[in-house]
Amino acid sequence: MSNFSVLSQHDEQLLRLGMLAEKYFPDDPNTCLIKLRQLGESLSQLLAARCGLYVSPDETQHDLLRRLKDGGILPREIFQIFNEVRRAGNAASHALSGDHRTALMALKLSCSASAAKTRQSSLNAGEKGLRHELSTGLVQNRTQA
User: Fold this and answer.
1) Using an 8 Å Cβ cutoff, are 117 and 32 in contact?
2) Residues near 28 by Cβ (< 8 Å), separated by ≥ 6?
3) Rg of the chain over CA atoms, in angstroms?
4) What pLDDT digit, counting tens, does each position of 7-36 carry?
């Protein structure tokens, strides 16, 4: 069973990316990080769409995350967490870097973000609920990483 299986009821693409990241982790942390970056991109795009802030698939991930932060959707610390996964994925993609420690940290953070998104969707708590879920779930997991 995947740590991302909670996403199956909401988005098959997110589930697929999370499961692939888990699959590649033991033997290929570089590919794991790339998949997690893709997962973060998709998750933030879904969040933006849910809040009516999605502009275009051509918008960079950094710009989208900044808009979500500036719009009050992502607290500063959560923005930083998404950015950590984004930067690790960029390094993995462009510099062929990525070790197990970095991949494990990114897996934990991505898993928490996925669980928070699923809980929020299930509860239909709106933007405030999502901010709270992201804040509590990701911050707790970050301290454990």
Assistant:
1) no
2) none
3) 14
4) 887 788 989 999 999 999 999 999 999 999
Residues 6+ apart with CB under 8 A from 104: 25, 145
d(CA 64, CA 69): 9
Within 10 angstroms of residue 50's Cβ, the number of other Cβ atoms is 16
DSSP state of 127: H
The pLDDT value given to residue 102: 95
Residues 119, 103: Cα–Cα separation, whole Å: 24
Residues 6+ apart with CB under 8 A from 145: 104, 105, 108, 109
CATH numbers and ranges of domains, the chain: 8-144 (1.20.120)
Q: What is the tens place of the pLDDT at every residue in 52-87?
A: 889 998 999 999 999 999 998 888 877 888 899 999
Size (the chain), residues: 145
